[in-house]
Design goal:
alpha+beta; Peptide Deformylase; two-stranded antiparallel sheet; 7 strands; globular; binds nickel (II) ion
């Protein structure tokens, strides 16, 4: 068994972040090791979620762990039956309702945060690492994380949710990121 690797995280400006992910057909050893690397990379960067595009891959896989926020009892009680971390293969949101607005960051946009409107609740279907079909009904922070990571898998980024004014406020940092990733 190989040790998981911490990968370099792709930042804004790299074309891979705009790619539509490809559904996983078979859960091979390569896919399992990709998922482990993604978890390792997310934890090393102190992130709450990571999509395959963020390490330069296009498989439809993301990982999420929002347990860091569980010191807050209210958040800990939002999704008590969903153990962390989660590995979601071929995830799709099948239902959503309500709305929430909250501050969001992204490992591909270091030091940039934006208020983003999301659904309060989502139902998400996915396969686990054994290939078993699963469904999670998520609310609050987990719901937000799932929506953010699924955006990545569809080539949609934090910047796409920013208002004109929000973008203006961080335009210098956005330009610098773009320049760095294209250098
Ligand atoms: Ni992100």
């Amino acid at each position: 068994m190989e040790e998981p690797l911490v990968h370099k995280i792709v930042t804004y400006g790299d074309a891979v972040l705009r790619k539509q992910s490809m559904p996983v057909i078979t859960i091979t050893e390569d896919i399992r090791s990709l998922a482990k690397d993604m978890l390792e990379t997310m934890y090393a960067a102190s992130g709450a979620g990571l999509a395959a595009e963020q390490i330069g891959r296009t498989e439809r896989i993301c990982v999420i762990d929002v347990s860091y926020a569980h010191q807050d009892d209210e958040i800990a009680n939002e999704n008590p039956d969903t153990p962390m971390p989660m590995v979601l293969i071929n995830p799709e949101i099948t239902a959503h309702n309500g709305s929430q607005v909250g501050q969001e960051g992204c490992l591909s946009f270091p030091e940039i945060y934006a208020n983003v409107k999301r659904s309060e609740n989502v139902t998400c279907k996915y396969l686990d690492l054994e290939g078993t079909p699963r469904e999670v009904e998520a609310k609050g922070l987990l719901s937000r994380a799932i929506q953010h990571e699924l955006d990545h898998l569809n080539g949609v980024l934090l910047v796409d949710h920013m208002s004109h004014i929000q973008k203006m406020a961080v335009s210098g940092r956005l330009k610098r990121l773009k320049k760095e990733s294209q250098a």
